């Protein structure tokens, strides 16, 4: 991952220097799950600096096991490996994204696109922003509120309930031309598609039409789905920003009370 919480503050791996001699050890935690994290690659010019969940002893439960930023879940983020970064622009964009008008529209867009039952909460949305922080999606060249909002939808699987109270899981996957590195600079060539998650965790078929099963990364598609967003309350925005500002830190207390059950296979729908 590109960023982590270092002594309670969000820091990019490339910006974290050596602590002064004799200073107390830093506490580095994953932005998403709060698990202990280490700073690696400091002396590698090929890979560059990064953060990763600290390994746990064999046989012991891994607190990061279900974290979207866990290395085993990185396949869906593989397209980011060769993407260029601009940290200064990224920080500016993040600040502007968290302003009322942008945050409202992005929240409304994600809620309508997911169309889950119950609807996406402020807490779930803030969790997506923490994954975006960990991956540092802000600093990709050309990133806009429209492209970022669509990419947010690809960060975690979604749980929903059918009309007869069965649980289903689905996910958005990014589809882009082979070899395209700067996704946000070519939004009209990219789309996200909404698929069922199979019982084994693999990606299943597309959801039915009318379920926002294909969304382009364009401004038009963003505007269409965000629609009017003035119904998003100030309280919702405040709750999202409290997490984004790390006033609420990840950890055991914020872990979901229920562990994720096996996904329902799409055949049962
Ligand atoms: Zn984590």
Structure explained in plain terms:
With 269 residues, this protein is of the alpha+beta class. The chain has one domain (70-268). It is built from six helices and ten strands, in the order βββββααααβββββαα. Strands 6, 7, 8, 9 and 10 form a five-stranded antiparallel β-sheet that branches. β1 and β2 (9-12) form a beta hairpin. α2 crosses α5, α3 (122-135) packs parallel to α6 and α4 (145-152) packs across α5 (219-226). The longest helix has 15 residues, at 100-114. The two termini are 36 Å apart. Bound molecules: zinc ion (ZN). Zinc ion binds next to loops.
In brief, what are we looking at here?
This protein has 269 residues and is α+β, with helices and mostly antiparallel strands. 25% of the residues lie in helices and 17% in strands. The protein has six helices and ten strands; from the N terminus they run βββββααααβββββαα.
Features:
about 270 residues; alpha+beta; 5-stranded antiparallel beta sheet; 10 strands
- How would you spell out the order of helices and strands? EEEEEHHHHEEEEEHH
Number of strands: 10
- For the termini, the CA-CA separation is 36 Å
Please, what is the average pLDDT? 89
Say which molecules are bound, naming each kind only once: zinc ion
Q: What composes the largest sheet?
A: 5 strands, antiparallel
| Structural class determined from secondary elements | alpha+beta
Our Rg estimate from Cα atoms comes to 19 Å
Number of domain modules: 1
Secondary structure tally, helices: 6
Helicity, in percent? 10-25%
Shape: globular
Proportion of residues in extended strands: 15-25%
Low-confidence stretches: 252-259, 263-269
């Amino acid at each position: 991952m590109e960023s982590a919480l270092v002594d309670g503050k969000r820091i990019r791996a490339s910006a974290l220097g050596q602590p002064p001699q004799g200073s107390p050890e830093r506490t580095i935690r994953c932005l998403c799950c709060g698990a202990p994290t280490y700073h690696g690659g400091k002396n590698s010019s090929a890979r560059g600096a990064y953060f990763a969940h600290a390994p746990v002893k064999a046989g012991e439960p891994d607190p990061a096991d279900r974290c979207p930023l866990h290395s085993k879940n990185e396949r869906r983020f593989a397209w980011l490996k060769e993407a260029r970064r601009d940290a200064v622009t990224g920080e500016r964009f993040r600040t502007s994204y968290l302003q009322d008008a942008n945050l409202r529209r992005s929240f409304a867009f994600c809620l309508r696109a997911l169309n889950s039952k119950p609807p996406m909460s402020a807490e779930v949305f803030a969790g997506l922003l923490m994954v975006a922080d960990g991956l540092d999606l802000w600093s990709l060249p050309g990133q806009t509120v429209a492209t970022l909002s669509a990419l947010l939808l690809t960060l975690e699987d979604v749980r929903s309930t059918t009309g007869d109270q069965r649980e289903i899981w689905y996910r958005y996957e990014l589809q882009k031309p082979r070899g395209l590195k700067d996704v946000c600079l070519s939004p009209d060539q990219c789309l996200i598609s909404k698929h069922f998650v199979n019982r084994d965790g693999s990606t299943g078929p597309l959801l039915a039409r009318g379920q926002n099963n294909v969304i382009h990364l364009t401004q038009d598609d963003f505007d269409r789905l965000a629609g009017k967003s003035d119904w998003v309350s100030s309280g919702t925005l405040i709750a999202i920003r409290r997490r984004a500002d790390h006033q609420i830190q990840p950890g055991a207390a914020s872990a979901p009370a229920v562990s994720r059950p096996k996904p329902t296979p799409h055949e049962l729908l």
